[in-house]
Write a structure and sequence with these properties.
This protein is mainly alpha-helical. It has a domain of 56 residues: Winged helix-like DNA-binding domain superfamily/Winged helix DNA-binding domain (Arc Repressor Mutant, subunit A). The protein contains five helices and two strands. Strand 1 and strand 2 form a beta hairpin. The longest helix is centred in the last third of the chain and has 23 residues. The chain is extended and about 60 Å long.
Length: 129
Amino acid sequence: MSAHYESGEPMQIRQIAAQQNIPDRYLEQLLATLRRGGIVKSQRGAKGGYFLMREPRKITLFEILGCLEGLDVQTCEGDINTKTVDSSVIEEIWQEASQAANTVLQNYTLHDLWEKRESHRQVDIMYYI
């Protein structure tokens, strides 16, 4: 959908599913969730389909994953006295890893993904004589 953003024309589910090799039914569920999250918009009718609500440069991967998967917010509601030193160390490392992953996802947009895909396609082109 990033590649079609400039045209302003919606993409139909079957078109996206064929390009991305995703089953139609699964894609319908993903798009419905993204629509509720304000990332995509649907348009009904013969020329209907889905399109991005904002520029691909303004939609981060963190935002998309947060919409699809929910934010991984962990709260410690257990008894603090039952926490072991080992579990505390693991929790600290897990929190650090989670923050690092979130930082990476916040730094990439849909446009960045599209650019990376295009650069990989250029490298994959083989010339035969």
